[in-house]
């Protein structure tokens, strides 16, 4: 996993956390769900990169 990928995944995860928090504060369930989805997507990407790294 390259450093660039790690940074992108971390940024996507942080962005998702921010969206989720903003959704909770404002009562916007759609924004909260989007934030959770972004976090999940980042986690899946990270897991995929870890698998690729294991086979190198």
Radius of gyration: 13 Å
Stretches with pLDDT under 50, minimum 5 residues: none
Q: Main β-sheet, in a few words? A: none
Number of helices: 2
Share of helix, binned = over 70%
Count the E strands: 0
What are its keywords?
single chain, 56 residues, mainly alpha, 2 helices
Explain what you see.
The chain contains 2 helices and no strands. The chain is mainly alpha-helical and 56 residues long.
Write a brief structural summary.
This protein is mainly alpha-helical. The chain has two helices and no strands.
Describe the secondary-structure layout.
Layout lengths: L2 H24 L2 H26 L2
């Amino acid at each position: 996993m390259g450093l660039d990928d790690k940074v992108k995944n971390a940024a996507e995860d942080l962005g998702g956390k921010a969206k989720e928090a903003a959704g909770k504060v404002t009562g916007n369930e759609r924004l909260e769900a989007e934030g959770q989805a972004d976090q999940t997507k980042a986690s899946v990407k990270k897991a995929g990169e870890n698998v690729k790294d294991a086979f190198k």
